[in-house]
Design brief:
- The chain is an alpha+beta fold.
- The protein folds into 2 domains: about 30-90 and about 110-125 and about 225-345, Ribosomal Protein S5, domain 2 (2-Layer Sandwich); about 130-220, Roll (Pdz3 Domain), CATH 2.30.42.10.
- About 35% of the residues lie in helices and about 30% in strands.
- The protein has 10 helices and 17 strands.
- Strand 7 and strand 8 form a beta hairpin.
- The longest helix is centred in the first third of the chain and has 26 residues, at about 95-120.
- The radius of gyration is 24 Å and the shape is globular.
């Protein structure tokens, strides 16, 4: 009888431990999105002979994104500053965590390159770009190159042809016979590789390589610039990197002793684009002492408002969040890099 009681207690303990392990560590098909960090960009950006010499800070804000587990999922459901996102809303179908991280790092590096280019042009410094080729963002399972290419590869030639943009590659492939095989040259880990394979029928009925792609550029600034964003990924730091680089190049006191946070993509024309998670970034910025927050503003089109009658711009959502969680922080709408400079003046 005594041994039976011991066995029951032992079994109950094991079941309890298993339950705790499941609550803490069982990975769910969801992600938790919450306030991340806000890093001082002057510690990330280094420009030769152009130090950051003024008081105040530019802050790079981020969103915390983590795989949900049962306990963290339940906590997030009752915490208003967190949201639960389905995995297929965050990642492409079939994409693993490693590929997702590679894509996010690419987006970050691309935003840094565009920021440097925009800042150098605005400051009247020389900078040139060199088109490398097609960056592979994703590969369809049906692609004949599925076992050959990897996310992060850069295709530089097709049938020994190099083009100056991705459209050139796409047009070349569209003019091939669907039964024709193609030879690709690509770069992986700084090594040149080649492979040959057949084209794949795509969802739109055309034939192609079966990859998701984007253009890949390298920049050559006249003054050496080093940017080390650490583990932060994505394209949303473009505006803030541009401001930091521009201030160091021109040695103009743009911040005027303020702690300025913000977010938004940047393109080569200096236009600012909207991003996700701006409500979380408002909270992160406020917790790190920001007194000003630059929020992208893109006027919604009639078609967007028709599909989403309750659509909110980044700026609107930022203002609403600040009124609840950051009442003393000033939120400023910006449409472009020049607009941001003018409104900080």
């Amino acid at each position: 009888m005594k041994n039976k009681r011991i066995l029951i207690r032992y079994s109950a303990l094991v079941v309890t431990l298993i339950g705790v392990m499941v609550l803490l560590f069982y990975p769910m098909n969801s992600f938790l999105e919450g306030p991340g960090d806000a890093s001082e960009i002057s510690k990330i950006v280094k420009i030769k002979n152009h130090p950051d010499k003024y008081n105040g800070k530019f802050l790079l804000t981020s969103v915390s994104l983590s795989r949900a587990h049962p306990l963290s999922y339940l906590i997030a459901k009752v915490n208003p500053v967190y949201t639960v996102e389905k995995a297929d809303e965050i990642m492409s179908p079939g994409q693993d965590d490693d590929s997702y991280e590679k894509v996010q790092k690419y987006y970050m590096q691309s935003s840094i390159n565009t920021a440097i280019y925009t800042a150098f042009k605005a400051a009247n410094y020389k900078i040139s770009t060199h088109y490398q080729g097609i960056y592979v963002l994703d590969i369809a399972k049906s692609s004949k190159f599925n076992s050959i290419l990897k996310v992060g590869d850069v295709i530089t030639k097709i049938d020994n042809h190099h083009f100056n943009n991705s459209l050139g590659y796409v047009n070349y492939i569209n003019n091939l016979k669907k039964s024709q095989k193609v030879k690709i040259q690509f770069i992986r880990n700084n090594q040149i590789k080649t492979a040959t394979g057949a084209l794949t029928k795509l969802v739109n009925g055309n034939y192609g390589l079966g990859i998701t792609l984007t253009d890949y550029f390298k920049i050559h600034p006249s003054v050496p610039v080093k940017v080390n964003p650490g583990n932060v990924g994505g394209p949303s730091g473009g505006l803030m990197f541009t401001l930091q680089v521009y201030e160091q190049l021109t040695q103009k006191n743009i911040r005027k002793n303020r702690v300025v946070a913000g977010t938004g993509t940047i393109n080569k024309d200096g236009q600012v684009g909207e991003i996700g998670g701006i409500d979380k970034k408002i909270i992160a910025a406020y917790k790190n002492g920001a007194t000003v927050f630059l929020a992208p503003y893109v006027k919604p089109s009639k078609s967007v408002l028709k599909l989403e009658p309750d659509h909110k711009t980044n700026y609107q959502l930022a203002k609403e969040t600040a009124s609840k969680y950051a009442p003393t922080m000033k939120v400023i709408p910006v449409t472009s890099f020049k607009d941001a400079i003018n409104k900080l003046s």
